[in-house]
Design brief:
Number of helices: 2
Number of strands: 9
Order of helices and strands: EEEEEEHEEEH
């Protein structure tokens, strides 16, 4: 299929070689915003709406990438749509790829300034919160985020925040 025949919007399910269905026909990306609050390093998590895939869990704002969209742009777009964070208060510093060969999810790790504010910006979120790293695993986490958290937390700990 030529690029002109492929839809620009990436919304849709991908039947993965791993046996699961994943959201995003061109893959997906999410934003892991990080900042220091006093002595704690906190990360931004989204409480996903019950109707969403693996709903009523805590994870990252994110979603399907559009046809010619890179992970950073997609993660920033999705985070703006879902939790209202302004990209001008974020600096992408690293990423982690959950690669399934025929599909992938890229978590973009970004440093958030103290001016970065968040809110429930659309129907995909029940709540948003800055959560201390040591408390993340105590939440009811989205299964894929829970699987990636050990890798992500190691990347965050390596940063000088």
């Amino acid at each position: 299929m030529s690029d002109h025949a492929r839809p620009a919007n990436g919304d849709g399910w991908h039947e993965c070689q791993c046996g699961n269905k994943h959201w995003g026909i061109y893959g997906a990306a999410g934003l892991l915003a990080v900042r220091r609050e006093g002595e704690a390093i906190v990360v931004l998590l989204q409480h996903r709406a019950p109707w969403s895939h693996n709903g009523n869990t805590w994870g990252l704002p994110g979603g399907a990438l559009n046809r010619d969209e890179g992970a950073i742009d997609g993660a920033l777009r999705e985070a703006s749509e879902e939790v209202g964070i302004d990209h001008r208060h974020l600096t992408a510093v690293d990423s982690y790829i959950d690669d399934h060969h025929s599909w992938r999810y890229e978590t973009v790790i970004a440093l958030a300034s103290s001016e970065a504010t968040v809110s429930v910006a659309n129907h995909e979120s029940l709540a948003v919160a800055w959560i201390a790293m040591e408390h993340v695993e105590k939440e009811n986490l989205h299964p894929s985020f829970a699987k990636s958290w050990p890798h992500l937390s190691a990347l965050i700990e390596a940063l000088e925040i």
